[in-house]
Design goal:
β1, α4 and β2 form a beta-alpha-beta unit. Strands 3-2-1-4-5-7-6 form a seven-stranded mixed beta sheet, with helices on both faces. With about 250 residues, the chain is α/β, with parallel strands linked by helices. Helices cover about 35% and strands about 25% of the residues. It has one domain: Vaccinia Virus protein VP39 (Rossmann fold, 3-Layer(aba) Sandwich), CATH 3.40.50. The structure holds S-adenosylmethionine. The site of S-adenosylmethionine has 24 residues, from α1, α3 and α4.
Amino acid sequence: MKKNIWHETVKKNFNNASANYLSYSNIQKHFAEKIVSFVKGLNIQKGEWIDLGSGTGLLADEIEKIFSKENITRIDFSKKMLLQNKDSSKKILWDLNNGLPPSISKCSLITSNFCIHWLDDPEKIIRGWFSKLRSGGYLIISYPTINSFPEWKQTCKETNIEYSGLTFPVSRDIIQSFNSDEIFFSNKYLYVENFPNVYKLFRSIVNVGAQSSKCERKKVHELKEIQKYWPKKATNSVNLTWEINIQILKKS
Ligand SMILES: C[S@@+](CC[C@H](N)C(=O)[O-])C[C@H]1O[C@@H](n2cnc3c(N)ncnc32)[C@H](O)[C@@H]1O
């Protein structure tokens, strides 16, 4: 799939999910809260605070609840997602595959929850974000890693059906170009979701606009096979396991 068609597909799906995103984004909320608990423990100096791929403002709102003097700039390429942010917030409509808007510099806090895996070259993009930090500034990212969705991948192997989920980043690659004194924190967390069947599981991905795939849409008989072979829990339900990495980089 050509890059620009891919970008438009991703944007369209997030635009379409924007109105109901907050009702379904349980995992994003969980990790937004974790990020907030890290932010609370950091001694952040004066400077701009920005949230990248901010969506509806879920993470930025949580941070502002604690740091009420901050007005976090929210950046996203989905207009409909940005429109869900509170009116008083600073918002910039921008495609993060093009780096950061020229107006951004000297940030003391940059956050990004569940966004970098949608970008073309996350390693390069992260270097660009890091370059916009002032001395002493922090960059905090969270994203699903390559080890996510083992049940789905295993089922595809068994049934010989192409895995149509995203290929998530390898955490080591994301920070490989940073010096050890710039890597303040890096940790992986498992998060397991449970659904009555795979149809509900795939619906949950569509509900947050994350269904974009470079593969062809699955046919009904393929979905039936996936449902049949996906490992079942005692209740006949199905799990989806995410491995999420939170990394904090600090500019010396
Ligand atoms: C799963 S949502 C996460 C939203 C928010 N960070 C949260 O925690 O709820 C991913 C967001 O990244 C945005 N996004 C994806 N690709 C982007 C790009 N190239 N430029 C800007 N935003 C992008 C989407 O529009 C969407 O709002």
